TrEMBL record, chain A:
Pfam families, A to Z: Fer2_3 (PF13085), Fer4_8 (PF13183)
A biological process from GO: aerobic respiration
Required co-factors: [2Fe-2S] cluster; [3Fe-4S] cluster
Gene Ontology molecular functions: 2 iron, 2 sulfur cluster binding; electron transfer activity
All copies of domain 4Fe-4S ferredoxin-type, residue ranges: 151-181
Family of the protein in this entry: Belongs to the succinate dehydrogenase/fumarate reductase iron-sulfur protein family.
Residues passing through the membrane, by range: none
Protein's name according to its UniProt entry: Succinate dehydrogenase/fumarate reductase iron-sulfur subunit
UniProtKB/TrEMBL annotation, chain B:
Organism expressing this protein natively: Flavobacterium psychrotolerans
One Pfam family it belongs to: Succ_DH_flav_C
Name of the protein in question: succinate dehydrogenase
Listed GO CC annotations: plasma membrane
Enzyme kind, highest EC tier: oxidoreductase
InterPro entries linked: FAD-dep_OxRdtase_2_FAD-bd, FAD/NAD-bd_sf, Fum_R/Succ_DH_flav-like_C_sf, Fum_Rdtase/Succ_DH_flav-like_C, SdhA/FrdA/AprA, Succ_DH/Fum_Rdt_flav_su, Succ_DH/fumarate_Rdtase_cat_sf
Amino acid sequence: MKLTLKIWRQKNAKAEGKIVEYPLDGIEGDMSFLEMLDVLNEGLINKGEEPVSFDHDCREGICGTCSLFINGEAHGPDRGIPTCQLHMRMFKDGDVIFIEPFRAKAFPVIKDLVVDRSSFDRIQHAGGFISVNTSGNPVDANTIPIPKHDADRAFDAATCIGCGACVATCKNSSAMLFVAAKVSQFALLPQGKVEATERVLNMVNQMDAEGFGNCTNTGACEVECPKGISLENIARMNREYLSASLQG
Amino acid sequence: MALDSKIPSGPISDKWTNYKDHINLVNPANKRNIDIIVVGTGLAGGSAAATLAELGYNVKTFCFQDSPRRAHSIAAQGGINAAKNYQGDGDSTFRLFYDTIKGGDYRSREANVHRLAEVSTNIIDQCVMQGVPLAREYGGLLDNRSFGGTLVARTFYAKGQTGQQLLLGAYSAMNRQIGRGKIKSHTRHEMLDLVLVDGKARGIIARDLVTGEIERHSAHAVVIASGGYGNVFFLSTYAMGSNATAAWKIHKKGAFFANPCYTQIHPTCIPVSGDHQSKLTLMSESLRNDGRIWVPAKLEDAKAIREGKKKPADLSESERDYYLERRYPSFGNLVPRDVASRAAKERCDAGFGVNKTGEAVYLDFAAAIQRYGKEQAYIKGLDANDAKLIIKLGAAVVANKYGNLFQMYEKIVDEDPYTTPMMIYPAVHYTMGGTWVDYNLQTTIPGCFSIGESNFSDHGANRLGASALMQGLADGYFVLPYTIGDYLAPDIKTGTISTDLPEFVEAEKKVKDQIDKFINNNGTHSVDYFHKKLGKIMWDKVGMARNAKGLTEAIEEIATLRSAFHKDVKVPGTADSFNQELEKAGRVADFLELGELFAKDALHRNESCGGHFREEYQSEEGEAQRDDENFAYVAAWEYKGKPSDAVLHKEPLVFENIKLVTRSYK
C-alpha cells in the first residue's frame, strides 16, 4: 500500500519541532507499524537524510518502550496492544497517518518521537516497593496464603508496562492510572499492607511534584491502556489515599 | 594461563554452605567506602544491584533502556523453576540439579549447577515477600506447571508474564535503594569499554545516549549483566537493543569467552512472514503442556495445506503425524527445546511444513479444549454431549491459562488460535555460552564479574525452560553478593579510584576515535544492511544444524563482511546527540567479531551436544552424538587481536555426582 506519513520532527529538547510529510510505498499488511517506520528510515538513510528517532525495544508488547500518538490515539487505532503490536493491516492504501510523540509536561521530548519518561521512575522510587531485604532465610512462600481472587487482581494491576499511554491520552495529562496500578498491586496483598500508608502518600506527592495533572474521571486512560488496566485501581488508590490522609 | 574454576572441595551438597562460611567478609562500615558498577539491569543486574546496595556498597547501574524496568528479562513468559516440591511429586534439590545437568547435555559445571538448585527455593520466598503476584490455587497456595525436560511440576508462574513480574520485583527492590541514594541509576547509557588499572577492573567508559557525552566512571569492581548475544543472528526473540557490546569489550580486555557456539533455538516461535521482519516472537514453552505438535502425515496433504487447498481441520487423526509423541513417547511434547527444534526442522526439511514457506508446524489446542471442556461439563453437571458447549467451556479454561499469548498470536498472525492450530517454527532465543567465570562468577579479569545470561556457567549446551529466570535471580540475589565480598575484602583501604588516571584517558580516547570514525565514514549502506547479511550467514551456516564445510565458509564470509562494514557503513547524524544509528553501528561491529568466534568454536567442537548440532555427528535415528572422551570440557577463548587468532583454553568438566550417559527422552 501507499501511504502519506506526517511525522513530528524535533532536533532536540530545546529546538522547535514541526510536522514533516513523507510519502511511502510498498507497505504490506503483515508488517508491524514499527517495521513500516524501519522501511521509511532505511530509505531516509540511503538518501542521506537523518532517520526518524522513535523508542522501541522488545517489539512484543511487554517492555513498554514504544509509544507514539498515531492519528490522535496513543498506540494507534487497535485496542489492547502497544504500538509494536499494531500491524499495517489496520490501515488501507492511500491513508494519511499522523505520527506524534506522547505529549505531556512531565514527558519532555528528547528528539523526534522520543520522550523522557523518567518521571515515572521517580514516582516508583518514592514508594513503589515493599521494604524487604534480600536474605536466604525469609519465611517459606506458602506460609502466606493469599486468596486466588486477590492474587489475580493484584496480578492484573501489576501487568502495567509503564508506557505512558494513559498520560498521553488524558486531557489533564494525569498519571493516576499508572500510579494506581502499583498502589493497588501492593494494597491487595498482605505483604504490601504494612507500609500502605506511606506508600500511597509518597507516590501521590511525587506524582504531583512531577507536574502530572489531576484525574477528572473521564476514563480515557482505561480505553487506551494497552494492558487493560482497570479504572477500579484509581478508585482503590483514592480510598487508600483518603484513609492514609486521615491517619497521617 | 591455566583456568582455575575455584570449585570448593567437599561433597557437592555441602560445597556452597561451607564455602560461604569461610569466605572473607567486608565490615558494614567499610562497605560504604566501596563502589561497584553494574552494567545491565535485567533480572541478574537488577537483583544484584539491589542486594549490593542493601548490603551497604555504593552501586552505580547502567542500562541502555530508558528505565531499568524495560530490560529484556521482562519478556520471559512461562515461568521460573524451584525445587520446592510443593506438588509432592518427588522433586528435590538433587533432581533439579540432575535435570539441569542432563538437560544441558553434560556440558556444565556440577558445582555451579548444584548451587543454583540449592538457592532456587530462596528465590520464590524472596519474590513472594517482595509482592510478586505469582499464580495461586484456590486454597491460596502457590501453583505450579510443568516444563520441558523434567518429570515433575516445579515451575512457578504469573500467567504468561512471569519475567515481567519478577523483573518488576527486582526493579522495585532497586527503586527502594535508588530512593535511599544507595544506587545511582544511569539510564539511556551504554558501556563502551572497561578500564583496567594494574590488571584489575576499575571502571568503565560509557556514552550518555541522550547527549552523546562520553563519561568515565570508576569503581572497585565491575559487574557485567548485559544478557546474551542472540542478536548476532539479526532475527531472534531478543529485544531490538539487546547486544553483546559490554561482554565483548571485556573479552577484548582479557576476559575469556566460553562456548560461544552453544545457542538455544526455541521450538515455539511465530514463523517469519517476510523480508521486512525485524524480530521474532516467542510463544511460551508452557503451551506445550496443552498443545500438541503435528504436521500432516502425507506429503500431498502438506502440499495442499501450503497451497491453501486444505485446512488443518480437514485432516483426521490418522492423517496427522504427532512426531514428538511418536519419537519420544515418555516426554512427548515436553522434550527439551533443542530436541523439539531439531525435530521440527527435520519434518520441514522433509517437505511436511505447513505455511507458505514450508517452515512451520502446528501447535494444536483442540484436544486440550475438548478435555478441559468435558471436565468442566462434568464438574458443573452440564450436558457433556453438547459439542458447542464443550468447546466454549474448554476455550475458557485455555484462555485463563494462556490468554495473553493467544491474543498476541492473533494480533501478529491474524488467525484465531482457539479455532485453528497455531503455526510455529524454531527461532534463536538464548545463548548458553558467554563470558567464562569461576565459581565466584569472576571472569579472568580480577574485579570483573559476569552474571545471568552474559556468563556461561549453568546451562551447559542446552538450557531447560524456566531456568533462565532462576539463574539470573540466583546470581544476583544469592550468589554474587557473597562472592564479590571475598574479592573486595582487601580493597577497603584503597579509597576512591580517580578517573583522571592515564588508563581512563586512554580508554576514553579509543572510544571517541571509534565513534568519530563511524560518523565520518561516508559509506553507502546502513547498519541494518550489514546486520541482516551477518544474520543470514549465521542462520544458514551456524544455525540449527552445522557442518565443517559450512562453518569454514561462514568464518571467511563473516571476516569479509566485517571489513566491508568498516569501509562502507553509513552512520548519519552527529556524535554529540541522540543517535540511534550510531548506537547500532557499535553493536553490530561487535557482533561481526563475535559471530566469527562463534563459528570457529562450532567448527572446533567435533561432536553434537545440546543446542550445538553437527551434522557429521549424529546417530542413525538423527539424535545428537556426544564425544565425552574428547570434548567434555569448557572451551574458553582468549582474545588475541582478531577472532581468527583467538587461543583456546580448556576447563575439563569433572562429573563426580552424575554419571555421563547418552541423553534419552524416549
